[in-house]
Design goal:
The complex is a heterodimer of chains A (about 90) and B (about 350). The longest helix of chain A has 16 residues. In chain A, helix 1 packs antiparallel against helix 2 and helix 1 packs across helix 4. Helices cover about 50% and strands about 0% of the residues of chain A. With about 90 residues, chain A is mainly alpha-helical. Chain B is of the alpha/beta class and about 350 residues long. In chain B, strand 1, helix 1 and strand 2 form a beta-alpha-beta unit. In chain B, the strands form five sheets. In chain B, strands 3-2-1-4-5-7-12 form a seven-stranded parallel sheet, sandwiched between helices. Chain B starts with a strand and ends in a 7-residue tail after the last helix. Classes of the chains: A mainly alpha (about 90), B alpha/beta (about 350). Chains A and B meet through helix 2 of A and helix 8 and helix 11 of B.
């Protein structure tokens, strides 16, 4: 377990490639699609069929995986897979 | 004799099971169906017919099914005046099954369907009653109208000053209050309040992976090391086919004009469900902690937001649903709720695995 420093925003250090790989694993699992279907430009809602509850599942799974807490307001701007990479990277890479 | 039945939500999960029960009798069934996700009403009903009926019997059934294009959320159900007047002259029974059954839908959006939609169907019932043969309005409600009430909740209770845990509960309550108002003004009504509806008891099949299933899905993602629980609670799961059967049996007699709780007295504790699911899918089971001892500070961010939809059902103060009306109406009909055992639960889980909704780790 990583030590939690700040409850509001917990930074943990991960390689960006690891982040991408893990985010794709989570998306594939929640959207029930093949990992190869998850490319950076894909629209999460329209193309992967992820509704608002499933989107929460994705973000909660990322929080659990990386030991972070994501700001709800920031999650609002996520449209594509690339947006999601960027959001998670904000919390996980220094 | 009833003959021409109008059904809303007939392509939905419970609605379709009710339609299948009604088709066993020789009724003509008018299904109000809207276009959804680019599928026309005809495509939607055809897909269900092909799935559930043998080729030989479809022909006879199609002769008794009429598709009415429309939408409960629109005034006049989105049916043009001439067609609606024609229908109002012949419809004798309405089953109102249509509703949005999801957590997390904004109030105004879900109200438009669950409450205003119900008002539109009730207004149509009024037109039917004024014009013709109308005898009976069957409203599909939910035990969730009890909200956060604790104690004994009676079938004749509705507003006990309870609060609501989500917009689904709130709007289903508001819809029932509306139905009650029309009933008080002379519309013949029966109201059914099922508990937690699961997939089909024989096939495990569901067409609606919401609520019960969504919670199972969240558990399978292993997001929580611990979850709070009130160990006083047990869950009276009701399989969709039994719910449809009970509704069909009770509503076959128009003198059954009360409210009926559909809850399985063979209830199970949450641990039993969790252990069976965890064992089958091989996910890590969260440790259950009595509510008072649970450290809520551990929940944050989206994990908190997500579990908040389901927490009320885990830590709810004990509620007992009285079933006197149900028991007396079903008496002598050779109906009893099934036992919820491991075999039953695994049938539901197998269907989740088969469809890929939740994959079993192998």
């Amino acid at each position: 377990m990583r030590k939690r420093k700040d409850k509001s925003k917990i930074i943990s250090n991960y390689n960006p490639e690891t982040v991408k790989e893990e985010v794709r694993t989570i998306l594939a699992r929640v959207a029930r699609v093949k990992k190869s279907d998850i490319r950076a430009d894909v629209n999460i809602r329209d193309r992967l069929g992820i509704d608002s509850l499933s989107a929460m599942e994705v973000l909660a799974a990322a929080e659990t995986k990386f030991g972070i807490t994501i700001d709800e307001a920031k999650a609002f701007d996520v449209v594509t897979v690339k947006d999601l990479y960027r959001l998670i990277e904000e919390y996980t890479t220094r | 004799m009833r003959k021409n039945i109008f059904v809303t939500g007939g392509t939905g999960f419970l609605g379709w099971h009710i339609v299948k029960e009604l088709l066993k009798e020789k009724y003509n069934i008018y299904l109000l169906i809207r276009t959804k996700e680019n599928q026309s009403p005809y495509q939607r009903i055809n897909a269900l017919l092909v799935k559930d009926f043998k080729k030989g019997s479809i022909k006879e059934i199609i002769n008794r099914i009429r598709v009415v294009e429309g939408d409960i959320a629109e005034p006049g159900l989105g049916i043009d005046k001439i067609q609606r007047e024609e229908l109002a002259r012949i419809i004798d029974t309405i089953y109102h099954c249509a509703a949005l059954c999801e957590f997390g839908i904004p109030l105004e959006k879900i109200r438009k369907v669950n409450v205003e939609g119900t008002r539109n169907v009730l207004e149509f019932a009024k037109e039917c009653k004024a014009n013709g043969q109308f005898r009976y309005f069957i409203h599909i409600s939910t035990a969730a109208v009890a909200g956060d009430y604790s104690g004994i909740y009676y079938e004749d209770s509705l507003d006990e000053g309870q609060g609501f845990n989500n917009t689904y509960e709130q709007t289903k309550f508001e819809a029932e209050r509306l139905v009650q108002g029309y009933k008080d003004k002379g519309l013949p009504v029966a109201i059914f309040r099922p508990g937690v509806i699961t997939g089909n008891s024989v096939t495990g099949e569901t067409t609606n992976f919401q609520m019960f299933y969504q919670f199972l899905h969240i558990l399978s993602l292993e997001l929580f090391k611990e979850l709070p629980i009130n160990r006083d609670n047990e869950y009276g799961l009701v399989p969709v086919d039994y719910v449809a059967k009970a509704i069909s049996l009770i509503s076959s007699n128009k003198h059954n004009n009360k409210t009926y709780h559909l809850l399985n007295p063979n209830s199970i504790p949450f641990d039993y469900f969790l252990n069976t699911a965890g064992g089958y899918f091989s996910f890590r089971i969260p440790r259950l902690v009595q509510d008072e001892d649970y450290n809520y500070a551990n929940l944050s961010g989206f994990r908190k937001k997500l579990i908040n939809f389901y927490l009320p059902y885990l830590i709810h103060k004990k509620i007992v649903f009285d079933t006197k009306n149900f028991d007396s109406a079903i008496d002598g009909q050779r109906f009893s709720w099934p036992k919820i055992d491991e075999e039953f639960l695994i049938r539901l889980f197998k269907y989740c695995d088969k469809t890929g909704y939740i994959k079993r780790k192998r």
